[in-house]
Amino acid sequence: MEHGNYRFVWKAIKYHRKQGGEILNTPSFIIGLEDKSTKEVFPHPISHFLFKNYHRNSGSVNTELTVAQIIVPFLNFVLDKVDQKLTEYTEVEGLKDLRESHANAYLQYCVDEKANKNKTLEMKENFLSKFYKYLWDEKILKHKPKFKLVSVRSRKEIRKVYKIDFTYKKTDETLLREKIKRKDIVPQNHESNDNRIFIRLQYIREILFVAKHETPDIALGVALQIFGGLRKGEVVNLTRTALKSQNGQEYGVEGLVLLIRDRQNDLFTRFNDVSTMQVKNPRDQSCLIDPILNYLYKHHIEVVLKKVKKPLHPNALFYDSEGNAMSADTYDKRFLKLKNSYLGMLLGTPGRYQDYLDFSQTKWRSHIGRGIFTNMCLDAGFNEKQTAVLRGDRSTESMEAYFDIITATFNIRKALTLLSPDQSENIADLNMPTNRKMWKEVQEFGKGLRNEF
Questions:
Q1: What whole-number percentage of the chain has pLDDT above 70?
Q2: Checking phi first, is residue 343 left (phi over 0); if not, alpha (psi -120 to 50) or beta?
Q3: All residues at 6 or more sequence positions from 272 whose CB lies less than 8 Å from its CB, including other chains
Q4: Number of helices (H) and strands (E), helices first, in the chain?
Q5: 205 within some domain
Q6: Pick from 155, 175, 195: which residue ends a domain?
Q7: The domain containing residue 123 runs over which residues?
Q8: Mind giving me the DSSP string for 60-122?
Q9: pLDDT at 156 (0 to 100)
Q10: Is residue 373 domain-shared with residue 293, that is, in the same domain?
Q11: Is 241 in the same domain as 379?
Q12: pTM reported for the whole predicted model
């Protein structure tokens, strides 16, 4: 095993492959050795593990990246121990000398030093087990690991996999004090409220109002995540012609369908690593309708896009400050600014300190929009299967999915009544600072749109 002046790294690449009569520029990941002095990276043969087990099977470059981000730190952990000349590592000269004890030691390190939760540790166990099985099947290891055959459930099927019987001591999660991941915008003190769906709308409109003023370049994107359940990669892959207003009305007033497609080869050719800009499931996505979505759509087309100087992709929907199609990383940074602005607004508004604590002491990023969408669908009466279809989740039951799309699309009409600003009277007793100028503007924001279109 190489060490000293080298360390293992993962690296995004693109390679050309022929599919039918077309040459595709295909993203992938490799594992390499980086010279610490020159930063030059040399591809390592162990990259074949990613290609054989994940690149051809998963259909998602994100899976390759996840595996690489687990295997590379493990290999570097072993390298460090070799360099320290520790007893259990003196015989390690290459991958052939790896033993189960090295994986156990690494996982114990992940518990003691990284405070990994047991769910994360289980994922690492699975990938490390598969890595060791690959090394044994390829006749690389000198010592056979002790595998056990276990049953795992993957979607609707149960399959048998080989797993190492790890002996390290797992995390005592009662000792962890980690922020809870937020999956909805409704604060904790309103979660059991009968009028939760209307309360949620007030917070949605509030954060989108802040987005319009503080981060106007992504305000529409955040709205599409909330009302369409989009992932950030699906947002940045949108083009202007991908938004289809229904019933001959502009700006989605009578319905909005999004043509979710992977447009990396058109918009993101400047990147090798496109793992965060993938579209997992191309589809036609119906949006729930709320006047603030219509307003932000109109504002984006008529104001935001006209301020973009020398756009390099004339049909892109979102741009960075250089005129390039906005990347997912840039979108993340803009959302972080929105989040901080929203927290600042809550902290600076009398009567909103409890909201500030609720939002500042939980973890949330742009993916919260997908969680909000899911909760709106469930609260509006969609069943779990219909909600899964509306979210764009893959379904193995194609005929059932077809009928669910019809039913769910029909039920969107029913949901529109629930999302109407006329329902604000149902939350008259909601304890919010209606005397604040900004909050009054938010309250009136959606109501005025009915006369605008």
A1: 81
A2: alpha
A3: 12, 13, 14, 27
A4: 17, 10
A5: yes
A6: 175
A7: 6-175
A8: -HHHHHHHHHHHHHHHHHHHHHHHTT-GGGTT--SGGG--HHHHHHHHHHHHHTT---HHHHH
A9: 60
A10: yes
A11: yes
A12: 0.65
Q: Work out the number of other CB atoms within 10 angstroms of the CB of residue 44.
A: 19
The span from the CA of 188 to the CA of 182, in Å, is 10
d(CA 143, CA 100): 9
Torsion of Cα atoms, 182 then 188 then 194 then 198, to 10° = -60
Helix axes 437-445 and 291-299, enclosed angle (nearest 10): 100
The pLDDT of residue 3 is above 70: no
The pLDDT value recorded for residue 114 is 84
pLDDT tens, residue by residue, 277-333:
888 888 888 888 888 898 999 999 999 999 998 899 999 999 999 999 999 999 999
The answer to whether the CB of 185 falls within 8 A of the CB of 200 is yes
Number of domains making up the chain: 2
Q: 83 phi and psi, to 5 degrees?
A: -60, -30
Is the pLDDT confidence value at 256 over 80? yes
Shared-domain flag, residues 210 and 151: no
Helix (H) or strand (E) holding 403: helix 398-418
Q: Closest by alpha carbon to 29, among 56, 53, 55?
A: 55
User: What are 62-116's pLDDT values in tens digits?
Assistant: 788 899 999 999 999 999 999 888 888 988 999 999 999 999 999 999 988 888 8
